[in-house]
Amino acid sequence: MTYQYECSEGSCQFLLRSSSSDEVERLVRAHVRMVHNGRIDSTDLKRGTDRIELA
Ligand SMILES: [Zn+2]
């Protein structure tokens, strides 16, 4: 299973893929903090994270 997060903040092109949902959560939180100077709550994080199957 692969987890993918696409940032929807403004024109941000940030896209993250990982096989670990913990890692996605950690890196997305770091991204939002560093790039957008803000925070993301767990609900938005879960909503923004897709589970994808790579063929
Ligand atoms: Zn972003």
What does this structure look like?
With 55 residues, the chain is of the alpha+beta class. It has one domain (2-52). Helix content is 40%, strand content 24%. It has 2 helices and 3 strands. It has helices spanning 21-35, 42-48; strands spanning 2-6, 15-18, 49-52. It has a 3-stranded antiparallel sheet. A hairpin with an 8-residue loop joins strand 1 (2-6) and strand 2 (15-18). The protein is globular, with a radius of gyration of 11 Å. The structure holds zinc ion. Residues 7, 9, 12, 14, 31, 35-36 line the site of zinc ion.
Describe the secondary-structure layout.
Elements: E1 2-6, E2 15-18, H1 21-35, H2 42-48, E3 49-52
Antiparallel strand pairs: 1-2, 1-3
Bound molecules: zinc ion.
Quick check: average pLDDT?
A: 94
Largest sheet: 3 strands, antiparallel
Rg value:
11 Å
What share of the residues does DSSP label as strand, in percent? 15-25%
Which small molecules are bound? Answer: zinc ion
Give the proportion of residues in helices. 40-55%
Q: How many domains would you count in the coordinates? A: 1
Low-confidence stretches: none
Shape: globular
Number of helices: 2
Helix-strand category: alpha+beta
Head-to-tail CA distance between termini: 10 Å
Number of strands: 3
Q: Widest sheet: strand order?
A: 2-1-3
N-to-C series of helices and strands: EEHHE
